[in-house]
C-alpha cells in the first residue's frame, strides 16, 4: 500500500518547521515565511507532476521527439496542464533539461540557484524566487509576494535582526523532506486543512495581534450555519482577513451539495500582508476564481458593477471592533444613511456598508461589540431604521473573551432582506452563559453552536435563552422594541441571570438541610435513581441531614466515584451507543463507495443518535446533538480521507500501529517516559523547596543550589589533594635519588630521614583528602545515581523515537485495507463513547458541586460554632489559671 501524508503527520511536520524560526521572532512575524515556503514547495511539487503529464502529451500524443523542442514546450508558461508555472528562478530543484549555468546581463556565466541547494545570501535568492513566481502567474498571484508582504531580508526586533542563512538552510532542508504532490495526500483538501492549522497555530501564538487576521473557527461555523449558503450563492466578506469565513462557506456548500463549483467568493482586506495570506488560503484550497481585493472597504469598496456597488446573496464578517474611520476621499457615500462619530465608532458604518451590499433577498450575519446594541445618537437611529424596515431578524448575545486580543463580549446581528415587509418580530438569543471556559480565551462548544443555530432556524422561544420581541406597540402592546426606545440590551428581553443563592436562616441557626433546596436538584437525581437516598436522610419536618456514611465533605466525592447508580446510568449510554453503532456500521463500512454526501451522512447520524440518547435521562436534545457534533469534528478529516482514499493505514495513529505490531517497543517507550517524568518531578519538587525546608537527611536528592556548592567544595578538595599528591611525588623522587647516593655519601642520612618524614606527612594529607572526598561523594551518591538514571531514560527515549518512525512505516506497509478498516472503526467507536462520556461526566460534576455547596452552607450551624467557641474558651481559661493568671 502506498504511504500517503495524513493531516496529523503534516501538522507535526509544520509545527517542527515553525520551531526553526520560533526562537528568533514572534509568530506574527514568521507566519508569512512558513506559509510562503509551504506554498513554494507545494507549487513546485505539483509543477513537476504537471510537467511530466505535459511531456507525455508532447511525446506520445503530439509526437514531438527533438529534446530541445520538448524542453521549449515544457517551458511554455500558459500551457493548459499547469495550474502554476514555476520559472527557473523559483524552482526547488533542477528538473530534466534545466540548465546548470546561465549567462547574466553582463555576459558572465552564473550558476543556476535551485532552492534546495542554496547556501548563502538565501534571503536574496528567495525574494527573487517569489518575485519570479508571481510574475509568471500574475492572474493568480499579482501582488501576493510583493516585498511589503513577504520579504526574507526584513529586519525585526529591537536589534533589527534578519533571519540567518543558517536558519533558512534548515528551513529549506526541512521542506525538502516532504513531497506535497496531490497523489501523496490523503484527501484532496489536505493542503487547505494544513493551511487552516497553520493560521490557527499562528493565531494562538501571536495573541492580541491574531485578531488582525483570524476569527476563531467556532464563530465562523456559527455564522455559516446561521446563513446556510445555497449551492450557487454569491458570498462576500468585506473584512475578509485570512479568508476563513469564505472558506467555511465553500466547505459547507461542498459538504451539503457535493460540489461548490457554482458559488462565487468575494472579499476585501485593508492590510496587504493579511490580503496575501487570504489569497494563499484560497489557492491552498484550490479556489482559483475568488475575487479578493486589497483596500479599505469603508473608504473605497472595490467590488462594483458598472460603477455601482455590487450586491450579494450572503454577507458575513467580523469587522475590527470600535475602529476609527475617515470620510476624506470616501467613495459611495450613499451607502450611509447615518453618520457615526469617526473616532472608535466604525462598527455601524461597516454594517451599513453590508446592508447596502445585500441584494433584495440577501442575508447577512456580522459580529459586533455589545456597545452597538444600546448606545444612543446616530447608532440608536440606525437600530430603529433596521427594525422599521423589517431587516433585523435576530440579535445573538455571545460570551465574553471569545476573540483574540479582547475580553469584551460580542454579539451577532442577523439581517435578512427576504420578506422583510412581513417581519414584525426580532428574535433575541442570550447565549452568553453557555461556553467552555479557557485560561486565556473562552470557546463555544459544539452543543452551544447547535443550540444557537437550532433556535435561530426555528425561531424557538426558550425561557431565559430566547424570545421573539415585537417591533412596535400595535403588534404587541407590552413586549416590543418601541417601548424600550430601540435599546437592544439583550438582558432587557432575555434575562438569564441565575436566581440568588437561597439561604435558610433556621438551618444556619439550628442545623439541618432545607428539603426544598434538595428538591431543586430533582432533575439531576432523577438521572441516578437511588443516589439521593444514599446522600440524605430525614432529620425533622422539611429538613434533611447527610447520611451517616458522609462524615466529611471528601466523602461526597468518594460516594459519587463509587456510585453504582451513576455507573449504571453511564453504562446505559454506552449500550445505546453500541446499539446505534451496529445499526449504522454498514453505512460507515461503505463510506468510500457510497453516494451519500458527508453533510447528509452527518445529519442522518446526528438525528438517529440523538433519538437514542434523548430517550435516556441525562443529556437533553442540545447536549446529545452537541456531543455528536464534537465527535464528528474530531473525526471529520478521517472521514474525508476514507471517502477519498479508502481505508488507508496512514489514518491509524503511530501508537496504535506500535501496539498492534511492536507492543514491547511501545511498552519500553512508555516505561522510560514514566520514569523520566517521575525523576524530573522529584528534582523539580526539591528545587522549589525553601532554604529552611530542604535538608540532606530527609531528601534523597539535592537542591541545585546546595548541589553546586557541594560539587564546588569537592572540586576544591580535589585541587588541594592534587597539590599534596604532587608534593608527595616530588619528595619521593628526591628520596629515591638520595637513597641511591647514600652508600657513597653517608652524610645524606639526616636529609633522607627528613624527606621521609615530609613524604609521610604529605601522604597522610593525600589520604585524608581521599577520605573526605569519598565521604562527600558518597553523600550525593544517591543523587548522582538518579541523575544518571534520568540521563539514561532520556537517551533511551530518544533512541526509541529515532527508530519508532521506521518501525511504524514498516508496519503500516503490512496492514491490509481490511485490517486498517477494522482498526479505524474501532477507534472511531472509542472516540464516540469517550466524547459522550465527557458530557456525562460534566453532568455528574455539576450535581457533585451542587451537593458540596449544600454541605458548605449548612453542615456547621451557628449553635455548633458557639459551642465550639465556649469549649475553646474553657480550655484557654484552664491554661491561664495554670500559669497563675486568675
Structure description:
With 886 residues, the chain is of the alpha/beta class. The protein is built from 28 helices and 16 strands. The strands form 4 sheets. The protein has a 9-stranded mixed β-sheet with strand order 5-4-3-8-9-11-10-12-13. A 3-stranded antiparallel β-sheet has the order 14-16-15. The longest helix is centred in the C-terminal third of the chain and has 42 residues, at 817-858. It starts with 6 loop residues before the first helix and ends with a helix.
Indicate the topology.
Blueprint: H1 7-22, H2 27-61, H3 67-74, E1 101-103, E2 109-111, H4 122-136, H5 138-141, H6 165-175, H7 190-206, H8 217-227, E3 234-237, H9 244-257, E4 264-269, H10 272-284, E5 291-294, E6 304-305, E7 308-309, E8 312-317, H11 347-356, E9 358-369, H12 378-389, E10 392-397, E11 410-416, E12 425-430, H13 446-458, E13 466-470, H14 505-510, E14 513-514, H15 515-519, H16 522-525, H17 531-535, E15 536-540, E16 543-546, H18 553-562, H19 564-589, H20 598-614, H21 621-645, H22 654-661, H23 663-687, H24 704-741, H25 749-779, H26 781-814, H27 817-858, H28 862-882
Parallel strand pairs: 3-4, 3-8, 4-5, 8-9, 10-12
Antiparallel strand pairs: 1-2, 6-7, 9-11, 10-11, 12-13, 14-16, 15-16
Amino acid at each position: 500500500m502506498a504511504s500517503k501524508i495524513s493531516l496529523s503527520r503534516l501538522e507535526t511536520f509544520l509545527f517542527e518547521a515553525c520551531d526553526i524560526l520560533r526562537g528568533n521572532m514572534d509568530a506574527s512575524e514568521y507566519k508569512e515565511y512558513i506559509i510562503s515556503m509551504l506554498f513554494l514547495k507545494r507549487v513546485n511539487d505539483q509543477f513537476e507532476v504537471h510537467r511530466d503529464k505535459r511531456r507525455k502529451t508532447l511525446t506520445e500524443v503530439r509526437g514531438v521527439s527533438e529534446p530541445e523542442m520538448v524542453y521549449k514546450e515544457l517551458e511554455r508558461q500558459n500551457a493548459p496542464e499547469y495550474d502554476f508555472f514555476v520559472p527557473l528562478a523559483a524552482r526547488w530543484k533542477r528538473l530534466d533539461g534545466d540548465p546548470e549555468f546561465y549567462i547574466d546581463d553582463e555576459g558572465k556565466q552564473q550558476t543556476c540557484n535551485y532552492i534546495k541547494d542554496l547556501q548563502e545570501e538565501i534571503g536574496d535568492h528567495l525574494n527573487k524566487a517569489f518575485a519570479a513566481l508571481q510574475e509568471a502567474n500574475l492572474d493568480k498571484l499579482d501582488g501576493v509576494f510583493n516585498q511589503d508582504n513577504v520579504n526574507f531580508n526584513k529586519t525585526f526586533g529591537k536589534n533589527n535582526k534578519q533571519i540567518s542563512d543558517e536558519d533558512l538552510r534548515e528551513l529549506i532542508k526541512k521542506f525538502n523532506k516532504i513531497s506535497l504532490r496531490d497523489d501523496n495526500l490523503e484527501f484532496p483538501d489536505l493542503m487547505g486543512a494544513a493551511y487552516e492549522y497553520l493560521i490557527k497555530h499562528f493565531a494562538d501564538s501571536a495573541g492580541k495581534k491574531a485578531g488582525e487576521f483570524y476569527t476563531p473557527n467556532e464563530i465562523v461555523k456559527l455564522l455559516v450555519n446561521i446563513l446556510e449558503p445555497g449551492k450557487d450563492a454569491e458570498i462576500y466578506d468585506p473584512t475578509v482577513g485570512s479568508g476563513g469565513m469564505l472558506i467555511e462557506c465553500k466547505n459547507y456548500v461542498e459538504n451539503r451539495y457535493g460540489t461548490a463549483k457554482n458559488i462565487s467568493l468575494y472579499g476585501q482586506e485593508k492590510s496587504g500582508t493579511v490580503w496575501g495570506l487570504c489569497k494563499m488560503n484560497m489557492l491552498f484550497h484550490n479556489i482559483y476564481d475568488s475575487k479578493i481585493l486589497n483596500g479599505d472597504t469603508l473608504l473605497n469598496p472595490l467590488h462594483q458593477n458598472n460603477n455601482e456597488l455590487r450586491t450579494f446573496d450572503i454577507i458575513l464578517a467580523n469587522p475590527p471592533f470600535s475602529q476609527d474611520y475617515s470620510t476624506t476621499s470616501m467613495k459611495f457615500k450613499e451607502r450611509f444613511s447615518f453618520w457615526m462619530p469617526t473616532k472608535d465608532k466604525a462598527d455601524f458604518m461597516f454594517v451599513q456598508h453590508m446592508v447596502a451590499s445585500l441584494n433584495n433577498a440577501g442575508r447577512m450575519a456580522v459580529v459586533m461589540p455589545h456597545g452597538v446594541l444600546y448606545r444612543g445618537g446616530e447608532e440608536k437611529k440606525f437600530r430603529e431604521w433596521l427594525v422599521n424596515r423589517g431587516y433585523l431578524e435576530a440579535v445573538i448575545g455571545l460570551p465574553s473573551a471569545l476573540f483574540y486580543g479582547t475580553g469584551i463580549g460580542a454579539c451577532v446581528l442577523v439581517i435578512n432582506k427576504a420578506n422583510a415587509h412581513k417581519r414584525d418580530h426580532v428574535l433575541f438569543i442570550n447565549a452568553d452563559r453557555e461556553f467552555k471556559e479557557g485560561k486565556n480565551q473562552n470557546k463555544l462548544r459544539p452543543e452551544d453552536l447547535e443550540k444557537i443555530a437550532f433556535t435561530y432556524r426555528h425561531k424557538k422561544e426558550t425561557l431565559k435563552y430566547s424570545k421573539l420581541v415585537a417591533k412596535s406597540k400595535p403588534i404587541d402592546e407590552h413586549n416590543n422594541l418601541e417601548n424600550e426606545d430601540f435599546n437592544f440590551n439583550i438582558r432587557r428581553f432575555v434575562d438569564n441571570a441565575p436566581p440568588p443563592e437561597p439561604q435558610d436562616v433556621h438551618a444556619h441557626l439550628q442545623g439541618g438541610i432545607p428539603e426544598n433546596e434538595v428538591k431543586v436538584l430533582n432533575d439531576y437525581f432523577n438521572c441516578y435513581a437511588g443516589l439521593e437516598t444514599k446522600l440524605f436522610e430525614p432529620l425533622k419536618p422539611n429538613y434533611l441531614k447527610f447520611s451517616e456514611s458522609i462524615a466529611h465533605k471528601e466523602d461526597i466525592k468518594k460516594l459519587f466515584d463509587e456510585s453504582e447508580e451513576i455507573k449504571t446510568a453511564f453504562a446505559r449510554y454506552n449500550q445505546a451507543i453500541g446499539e446505534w453503532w451496529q445499526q449504522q456500521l454498514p453505512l460507515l463500512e461503505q463510506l468510500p463507495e457510497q453516494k451519500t454526501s458527508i453533510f447528509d451522512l452527518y445529519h442522518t447520524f446526528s438525528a438517529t443518535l440523538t433519538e437514542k440518547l434523548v430517550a435516556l435521562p441525562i443529556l437533553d436534545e442540545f447536549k446529545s446533538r452537541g456531543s455528536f457534533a464534537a465527535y464528528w469534528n474530531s473525526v471529520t478529516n478521517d472521514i474525508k480521507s476514507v471517502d477519498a482514499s479508502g481505508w488507508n493505514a496512514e489514518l491509524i495513529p503511530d501508537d496504535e500501529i506500535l501496539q498492534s505490531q511492536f507492543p514491547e517497543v511501545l511498552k519500553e517507550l512508555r516505561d522510560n517516559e514514566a520514569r523520566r517524568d517521575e525523576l524530573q518531578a522529584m528534582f523539580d519538587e526539591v528545587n522549589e523547596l525553601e532554604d529552611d525546608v530542604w535538608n540532606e537527611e530527609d531528601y534523597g536528592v539535592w537542591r541545585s543550589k546546595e548541589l553546586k556548592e557541594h560539587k564546588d567544595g569537592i572540586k576544591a578538595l580535589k585541587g588541594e589533594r592534587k597539590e599534596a599528591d604532587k608534593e608527595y611525588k616530588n619528595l619521593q623522587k628526591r628520596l629515591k635519588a638520595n637513597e641511591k647516593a647514600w652508600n657513597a655519601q653517608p652524610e645524606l642520612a639526616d636529609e633522607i630521614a627528613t624527606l621521609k618524614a615530609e613524604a609521610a606527612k604529605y601522604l597522610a594529607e593525600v589520604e585524608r583528602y581521599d577520605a573526605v572526598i569519598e565521604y562527600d561523594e558518597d553523600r550525593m551518591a544517591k543523587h548522582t545515581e538518579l541523575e544518571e538514571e534520568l540521563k539514561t531514560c532520556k537517551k533511551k527515549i530518544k533512541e526509541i523515537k529515532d527508530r519508532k518512525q521506521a518501525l511504524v512505516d514498516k508496519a503500516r506497509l503490512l496492514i491490509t485495507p481490511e485490517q486498517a478498516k477494522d482498526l479505524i472503526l474501532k477507534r472511531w467507536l472509542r472516540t464516540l463513547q469517550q466524547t459522550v462520556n465527557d458530557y456525562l461526566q460534566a453532568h455528574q460534576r455539576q450535581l457533585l458541586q451542587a451537593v458540596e455547596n449544600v454541605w458548605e452552607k449548612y453542615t456547621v450551624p451557628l449553635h455548633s460554632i458557639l459551642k465550639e467557641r465556649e469549649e475553646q474558651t474553657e480550655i484557654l481559661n484552664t491554661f491561664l489559671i495554670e500559669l497563675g493568671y486568675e
